[in-house]
Amino acid sequence: MITLTCEEVKVNFSAVFSSEKLMRQLATNLHIGKSVFCYQSVGSTNDVAHRFAKDGARSGTIIIAEFQTMGRGRNAKKWVAQRGENIIASLILRPNIPLERLTHLPLLASLSVAQAIEEIVGIRTEIKWPNDVLIRRKKVAGVLVETSAQAGVVDYVVVGIGLNVNQAQFPDDLAQQATSLFLETGVVYDQTTLLVSLMRFLDANYARLKSGNTESILSMWRGYCDMFGKHITFYQGDSRREGIAIDIDERGFLRVEIEQKEERLSQAEIQTIRY
Ligand code: BTN
Questions:
Q1: Fewer Cβ atoms within 10 Å of its own Cβ: the N or the C terminal residue of the chain?
Q2: Which regions of the chain does DSSP assign to beta strands (E)?
Q3: Pocket-testing residue among 69, 72, 167, 170, ligand 1, by greatest number of atoms within 8 A of Cβ
Q4: Can you give the CATH number for the domain in which 268 is found?
Q5: Domain CATH code at residue 14
Q6: 216 near 208, Cβ under 8 Å?
Q7: 3-state SS, residue 147
Q8: 109-164 confidence digits (pLDDT tens)
Q9: What backbone torsions phi and psi does residue 218 show, to the nearest 5 degrees?
Q10: Percent of the chain, pLDDT > 70?
Q11: Whole domain around residue 65: which residue ranges?
């Protein structure tokens, strides 16, 4: 049974998103969006998703918030998004697939974001490996995948997605690197329309993953990636390294040529790409 904290009960509605409307619009999905929870404010939608998953929430459950007080990004960074302007969502999945195929999930999520933006906004974004979605080299969306596994068996996965939709300003320290759909187009977008598109693409891509058709995910993902053949600098932990990005491999790892030898990165923070 899913339990709500006092704060969630108090604010268990949202003026921007409606659970009923979203579930209706996602009714044709095979898997994603049969349960949807919308909040005005939470600490982190990923944390709510973890708690719900531990309480037994079904796979495909979506948690959405207008605002997060402790939103987090990859590599222990914060994820800050203005109240009510963006998409802040987490998805609970229980993939029941071999652990090694989970490496495709971050790519699958960023691909789905790029496809939804293309469908609704008509802009072709770029994806920076593994899962940053960029417009004109500025980040418009990020993905944070967190897995709960025991003894090599996956219990559930939380896929957190932050997409900057109508935010008109960013704090000074982010303004050079971050953007929103509004800033790029001058158009205010309906967040529900975007969210529905995103969840439909996620559903279709997730079905591909479940059926083992990872090659189609990788090949669509490659179509959005402009890094290959380019000189990159990246961080692995504290060490800064450089090389030429070659491609991704069948697991979604980044193939990089470093001093005439190839390495395959499962995790790294790309710092620069020389276009
Ligand atoms: C990144 O690019 O560093 C990942 C950002 C992920 C942000 C989303 S917003 C919804 C979900 N809840 C969180 O606290 N983080 C993710």
A1: N
A2: 36-42, 62-68, 87-93, 126-128, 132-135, 138-150, 153-163, 231-236, 239-248, 254-258, 261-265, 269-274
A3: 72
A4: 2.30.30
A5: 3.30.930.10
A6: yes
A7: strand
A8: 999 999 999 999 999 999 999 999 999 999 999 999 999 988 888 999 999 999 99
A9: -65, -40
A10: 96
A11: 6-222
- Nearest-CA residue for ligand 1 atom 15 is 72
Rounded Cα distance, 52 and 131, in Å: 25
Residue 243, classed as helix, strand or coil, is: strand
- Residue with token string 């997060």: 68
Distance 258 CA to ligand 1 centre (A): 30
The tokens for 179 are 């953007």
Kindly report the backbone phi and psi dihedral angles of residue 273, in degrees, each rounded to the nearest multiple of 5, phi listed first: -130, 125
Q: Distance from the CA of 111 to the center of ligand 1, in angstroms?
A: 16
H runs (alpha helix) in the chain = 6-10, 19-25, 45-54, 105-120, 181-185, 191-210, 214-222
- State if pTM tops 0.90: yes
Mutual angle of helices 214-222 and 191-210, in 10-degree steps? 130
Domains contained in the chain, number: 2
In Å, the largest CA–CA distance within the chain is 59
Ligand 1 centroid distance, CA of 38 (Å): 16
- Three-state secondary structure of 99-122: HHHHHHHHHHHHHHHHHHHHHHCC
Strands 62-68 and 36-42: parallel
One-letter amino acid at 212 equals G
The answer on 135 and 248 residing in a single domain is no
Listed as own residue / partner, the contacts of 258-263 with beta carbons closer than 8 Å and 24 or more positions apart are none
129 found inside a domain: yes
Q: In whole angstroms, what is the distance from residue 235 CA to residue 268 CA? A: 6
